[in-house]
Write a structure and sequence with these properties.
Distance between the termini: 25 Å
Shape: elongated
CATH superfamily: HUPs
CATH topology: Rossmann fold
Helix content: 40-55%
Low-confidence stretches: 127-131
CATH class: Alpha Beta
Strand order of the largest sheet: 3-2-1-4-5
Strand content: 15-25%
Order of helices and strands: EHEHEHEHE
Number of domains: 1
Largest sheet: 5 strands, parallel
Radius of gyration: 17 Å
């Protein structure tokens, strides 16, 4: 795994935005670096239901999931543009999305292993008693021979 193959986990949070800035500052001038901006989104169920007050609530929740996915996907394009403004070439930055299969942390780990990434950068939402958030902590515990940067 090459440390210059960077997976940037992005969830549209303030710490994810700081992680984007970190990647731009640390890697934009590194020759041969490749960045994949990656997000995991919730499965959006299909439905074919008779109209009832309950199904109206379900439809409302499904529409909220669709809006969230669209917002994060649009955010990925903005992240790519921002990284290019910071010095990356368009060909150095790719976007990848994945429907959540297990958990966000496990899906990030799976992506790292499948893609041969040597560096993972993600935002960290710290929890009481931990310097990292639970996702960053789980990713850190699960990966060996990979640099993991948790940006607070």
């Amino acid at each position: 795994m090459l440390w210059t193959s960077v997976l940037l986990a992005y969830d549209n949070s303030p710490t994810a935005l700081r992680a984007v800035e970190y990647v731009g500052q640390m890697f934009s001038k590194v020759e041969g670096v490749k960045v994949t901006v990656f997000t995991v989104y919730e499965k959006i169920p299909e439905y074919d239901m008779v109209e009832t007050p309950f199904t109206n609530k379900v439809r409302s929740n499904i529409e909220a999931l669709r809006r969230d996915k669209a917002e994060v996907t649009a955010g990925l394009e903005e992240v790519k543009k921002h990284l290019c403004r910071m010095g990356f070439e368009d060909s150095q930055v790719t976007i990848q999305t994945m429907e959540r299969k297990k958990s966000v942390a496990k899906d990030i780990v799976e992506m790292v292993r499948a893609g041969g990434f040597g560096t993972v950068v993600l935002g960290s939402h710290g929890q009481k008693g931990s310097i990292f958030g639970s996702i960053a902590n789980d990713v850190l515990k699960s990966l060996k021979d990979v640099s993991v940067v948790a940006v607070a």
